[in-house]
Amino acid sequence: MDGIHDMGGMHGFGPVDPSREQPFSKTEWRARMFCLELSYTQPGGFNVDWLRHVLECIPPDVYLTSDYFDRWYWRDVGVLANVGWVSIDELASGVATSRPQDVGDPLPPEAVSVMLEQGLDSRRDVADPPAFKPGDRVRAKFHSPLGATRLPRYVRGHVGVIEQYHGWHVLPDANAVGDERPEPLYSVGFLAQDLWSDAAAPGDKVFPCLWESYLERE
């Protein structure tokens, strides 16, 4: 869906500081929130795209006035309440009064780092040929679904060039609603000046990874 969460490329939010000196978390509870996110046993139907969709459902005023890990908390509250693992009373009191029958054991601490290193693999073995190849000119569609999508607003309607084909990967839009459907995935190069006019330096390019259904031949 289109919402305030899709802020990539918008003016007024200042530069991103990519330095390694930036602290991972300025307070202990944020680091704890990160660890809880990785270690709790996920409900059935859980996947990263469903999490993104729930995050994008946070009202704009709450989203903009919450920091990064606050949003994680509100998202997890929505996920766990949706599957009946916690009640509103438990969330309000902070005291658990029941344990769902289908909950497994949490990950041990030593398993969390292993999971982080392995990551999630969205690749799927599909023999069908892709529609595009490196060098093809394509246009990003004006794609504005009600659910989750990984097509950023700032490239919609713009023309780019296929730079690399990555094989077949699960489409996030479908995966968010439980349909694990793969599509060809590409890196597409867009001239930054085409996207942001005089705000970009000549020759600079942006290379988002886009699924085939986001693109049409130019």
What does this 3D model show about the protein?
With 218 residues, this protein is an alpha+beta fold. The protein folds into 2 domains: 28-118, Cyclin A, domain 1; 123-217, Roll (SH3 type barrels). Helix content is 30%, strand content 17%. The protein contains 8 helices and 7 strands, in the order ααααααβββαβαβββ. Strands 1, 2, 3, 4, 5, 6 and 7 form a 7-stranded antiparallel sheet that branches. It is globular, with a radius of gyration of 20 Å. The mean pLDDT is 86.
Walk me through the topology.
Blueprint: H1 28-39, H2 48-56, H3 60-64, H4 68-82, H5 88-93, H6 109-118, E1 123-124, E2 137-140, E3 159-170, H7 172-175, E4 182-191, H8 192-196, E5 205-206, E6 209-211, E7 215-217
Antiparallel strand pairs: 1-3, 2-3, 2-7, 3-4, 4-5, 4-6
Helix pairs in contact: 1-4
Features:
218 residues, alpha+beta, Cyclin A, domain 1, SH3 type barrels, seven-stranded antiparallel beta sheet, 8 helices
Give a summary of the structure in a few sentences.
The chain has helices at 28-39, 48-56, 60-64, 68-82, 88-93, 109-118, 172-175, 192-196, and strands spanning 123-124, 137-140, 159-170, 182-191, 205-206, 209-211, 215-217. The protein is an alpha+beta fold and 218 residues long. The chain folds into two domains: 28-118, Cyclin A, domain 1, CATH 1.10.472; 123-217, SH3 type barrels (Roll).
Tally of individual helices: 8
Distance between the termini: 25 Å
**Number of domain modules:** 2
What letter string, H or E per element, gives the SSE order? HHHHHHEEEHEHEEE
The SS-based structural class is alpha+beta
What is the CATH T-level topology of the largest domain?
Answer: SH3 type barrels
Mean pLDDT reading: 86
User: What oligomeric state do these chains adopt?
Assistant: single chain
The total strand number stands at: 7
Helix content: 25-40%
Please report the first level of CATH classification, the CATH class of the largest domain.
Mainly Beta
Main sheet: strands, sense, barrel: 7 strands, antiparallel
- Overall 3D shape: globular
Radius of gyration: 20 Å
Low-confidence stretches: none
The CATH architecture of the largest domain can be given as: Roll
How much of the polypeptide forms β-strand, as a percent range?
15-25%
